[in-house]
Design a protein that fits this description.
Blueprint lengths: L2 E8 L10 H7 L2 H7 L7 H19 L11 E5 L5 E5 L1 H7 L4 E10 L2 E10 L3
């Protein structure tokens, strides 16, 4: 295993008033913004909070924090079954070297908290 990261985001921190388009563009990948348009009304803040928690958990698992990485380079999308996965670009993609690493992601939200758990494992030969 290469690293483990976990993060919790208080959903209320992401109020509609605080989430200007400029801030959304700085924090979220374009694909996340597209997926946000399909989220059931009233669930948007849970969606955004869980995605941001995933980004924080990933950079913790990598051991780098956001140094040299922009949050918008990390996309968290859902596959056809609803399972979340990362879509990476820029510096974070270079650091991850997905030919050598595998990333696992789990998201949940309960009450006022959105939680993310990430495991980064080295691929064997």
């Amino acid at each position: 295993m290469a690293g483990v990261g976990v993060d919790a985001v208080k959903i209320g921190r992401l109020s509609r008033e605080r989430m200007s388009q400029h801030i959304l563009n700085r924090l979220f990948h374009p694909s996340e913004m597209t997926e946000l348009e399909t989220i059931k009304e009233g669930c948007e803040l849970e969606f955004l909070a869980s995605r941001y928690a995933a980004k924080e958990a990933l950079v913790k698992a990598l051991g780098s924090g956001f140094r040299g990485i922009y949050p918008s380079e990390i996309g968290v999308l859902s596959d056809s079954e609803g399972a979340p996965h990362f879509v990476l670009s820029g510096e974070v993609k270079a650091r991850c070297n997905l030919n050598e690493k595998r990333i696992h992601l789990s998201l949940t939200h309960e009450g006022e908290l959105a939680l993310a758990f990430v495991v980064v494992e080295e691929q064997c030969g």
